[in-house]
Amino acid sequence: MIEVRGLSKNFGNKAVLNNVSFSVGKGSITGIVGRNGAGKTTLLKALVTIVDPDKGTVTVNDHDIFREPKAKNKVMYVSESVEALKNFSIQQITSLYRDVYDQFDEGYFQELLERFKMPKVKKIKNYSKGRKALFSLILAFASKPEYVLLDEPTDGLDVIVKKELMRFLVDEVSKEEMTIIIATHRLDELETLADQILVMKDGTIKETFQLHSLREEYQKWQVVYQESMPEALKANVHILNQTGRVYSLLFEGDQEEGKSRIEATEPLLYESLPLSLEDIFVAKLGGEQIAE
Amino acid sequence: MLNKGLLKIDMRSTSMVLGILAVLFFLQYPLRALLELDWLRTVAEEPSYNQQMFNSQYGYFIEDLFGASVFSVFVIAAVLIIAGMLIGLERNTRRHDFNLSLPFSRKEIFLTKATLGVGMITLLFWLNVALALIIIQFSEFSQTLSQLNVLEMMIVPWLSLLAIYMFTLFMGTISGEMISQIVLSIIFLVFPYGFTMLVGIALTVHMGNVGRVWIGMDEFILAFTIPFHLFNVYHAFDHMAILYIMVSLAMFVLSLVLGTFLYGKGKSEKNGEFLLFQPLQPVFLIGIVACFGMFGGTIFTVFIVSTGAAILFYWFGFLVVGGIAFLITRRLLQMNVTLKTNR
User: Which candidate in A86, A92, A123, A144 is best for mutational testing of the B interface (most B CBs within 10 A)?
Assistant: First the structure.
């Protein structure tokens, strides 16, 4: 289990992480979502000691990673890390990972290279951006970690590579007892992937959602009024969108309760809409531009 | 116990400069030995050269070969760049984040860099020195080896290079990128002599002969200016080599201890900035401005004969050059250089 307790970090006078606490169990996928500058990358970096927190602890399987860096043997941080090795050949990287990670499975690494038809290149820098991202994941999973931390894994990738990458992630998690933490602002990708979502804003975990229970806790309605929505209702809902007299609303609570509250305002028309993660994100963090 | 993986990362990033260092040592010792021996043969065999000239060449053969050489300048530059690439350039690129994410402590990461540089400098230096000695030993001039002073000609330069390397690594733990690491290392490596000279000249300008007392202590002060150990083989004092060795060893140990400690304390979010530690900024600003001011004062008084005018020109130079230094340094302290590429 990765356990984060009271993690705080200031960059100058700005609090980038502010008393962040959460835990992630084995065999799950956790998404960390938030707007640019919310602290997602800093949080991931703190989980592998790239960033030193001012306060707080991070333990991996009960080992404090700042006191026992060896505990990071089970944690792979994948960002643009392969850029650091771009002048290495595949053979050199294999040899390097064998030296660093005791459990590195070279056979599996070769198998994955073949499965994804990775072209043979002299140096890693000769791969395209998508191939580099895929190569990073192959390296990470061949190292047989218990935890994989992914920072914006699909940024700048085309749709086909993205799908390939996502399928690979799901395959790996289903095969092994592996935990994945993904920091992203791509909510659509997490929707089908994650078990748990941590919503970050201004360096704090603002909300934690379990995706399986999300649809029981929130509903989305489209409501049309004769003139405008009554003020009394406005106080209890999040308005996702308004076009003239047509409102898209997000309710917290169960379906029946939402329905009866809408009916009480005597709308012309109302209907339930499918709920997306983006709706909750927009409602909780504000601004439609935050989710793509 | 050092990890092979870490060594491979550092080795890979510095392989080119390590190759250049190997070539420089080869040029400095074995190749020069061959060329000098050839020259000695020419002098011995050519009737146009007289016996006195041969004796002179023969007498200084070993001292010329293992003494001060222009190659030492390039060797020092290569050593500075190796240390700069291992810490400063790493901070400029993604290699630093990658290394920190590996299952090693920062102490292990720093000690790997220290070991790699010390090991490679030692190996390349002694390999080439040994090669040069073998070449001489198997030549008809092997008798010249009796003039060899291992302490002054080999131990002193070797330890000086190690001290310069370790000091540059240490400077990398307080600076945020490669250029500032190398520039600050150069400034502080020549600081004892440079600062004493500047103070001496300032005193001379203001108080006449008092300043000359300082300048007269050149030889002693140079002992604390490690790069000069590689050029200063003709000593005015007895046992100067011992003092050189002690200074180098002290610098080596101090830099290793402080560097190991500070590498663990540096914040990665400060990478790319001139200095990693905010509290050092005013100290450096004042120090750099004061030194450049005194340098400016020195330059402006060079052409002045009259003492009264000299003081006036000194302070004029101090304000002009110090002012420019202030503006540039303030800018440097605010900069952030983070390269998106990596070597």
Answer: A86
